[in-house]
Amino acid sequence: MDYNSTKKYWDEIFAEVPVYKAENRVNNGELERCFKWLGEGAESVIDFGCGNGRALYRAAYYGSKKVLGIDISAEGIDLAKKIELDGLEKDFVLGGVESLKDIEDASFEGGILFNILDNISPSDCETVLNEIHRILGDGGKLLIKLNPEYDNKELDSDPDFTKFEESLYLEESGVYFYNITDHMMKSFLDGKFNIVDEGEIEFKDFMTYNRIYLLEKSEG
Questions:
Q1: Predicted local distance difference test score (pLDDT) of residue 19
Q2: Could you give the domains of the chain?
Q3: Could you report the per-residue pLDDT of 155-182, keeping only the tens digit for each?
Q4: In Å, what is the CA distance from 113 to each residue of 6, 56, 91, 141, 145?
């Protein structure tokens, strides 16, 4: 799928964002707890759709020693590379789903997928989950964050959304939205990851919430 409009959107956003300071907590206690859970249990972490690297650096703040971030936004990657944290081995790659195939099996202990599975096509979503499952070692930890679940009928009638296929839309901003329901998400995870915890994280400034999944790779 062509993500040029998505790339343009995020390049414009990150062009206006200052360099993040690794020691700064995020303005959300529940989200910070998730970074602590990941960072304390995974010395190496991969983040597909890393943006400016904030999530990776928060995991590193809590203990991760090696991080790899992948994103299609050149502006986001540029910001991530500029962040400093003593003792951290870091690498950032400008690329999309195809970048995952070059990473060795079981080469990372943790992963982050923040608002990325529901911003790509269904086929790419499946590919990313399969690749992350391959890349994580036994018992590997994974953080997934998703947008709220919506009624497809409401989206079908919303002029700000253009429907491409069932549950897949292009927003007016140029970003794709794959409306992943909780039931769909759990079917995607079945046989790949066990749910350690799940819930909703409220973002009061934006008057919305996100769904969060704390996962561990299934055995076998």
A1: 94
A2: 4-151+181-217 (3.40.50.150)
A3: 999 999 999 999 999 999 999 999 999 9
A4: 17, 11, 17, 11, 6
| Full-model pTM | 0.96
Could you tell me if 35 and 98 are in contact, meaning their C-beta atoms sit under 8 angstroms apart?
no
> N- to C-terminal Cα distance for the chain?
32
Query: What integer pLDDT is reported at residue 80 of this predicted model?
Result: 97
Sequence-ordered list of residues with C-beta below 8 angstroms from that of 43, at least 6 positions apart, any chain: 63, 64, 65, 66, 109
Whether residue 13 contacts residue 79, with contact meaning beta carbons closer than 8 Å, is answered with no
Residue 33 and residue 28: Cα distance in Å, rounded? 9
Pairwise CA distance, residues 192 & 145, whole Å? 17
Q: Provide the 10 A C-beta neighbour count for residue 204.
A: 9
**Residue 70, number of CB atoms within 10 A of its CB:** 22
Q: How far is CA 212 from CA 80, 107, 173, 198, in A?
A: 23, 24, 24, 5
How far CA 62 is from CA of 41, 57, 66, 156, in Å, comes to 9, 9, 12, 42
pLDDT tens by residue, 10-54: 999 999 999 999 999 988 899 999 999 999 999 999 999 999 999
CA-to-CA distance for 131 and 108, rounded, in angstroms? 12
| Tokens at 212, concatenated | 């969060």
pLDDT at 203 over 90: no
User: What is the DSSP pairing of strand 108-114 with strand 136-146?
Assistant: parallel
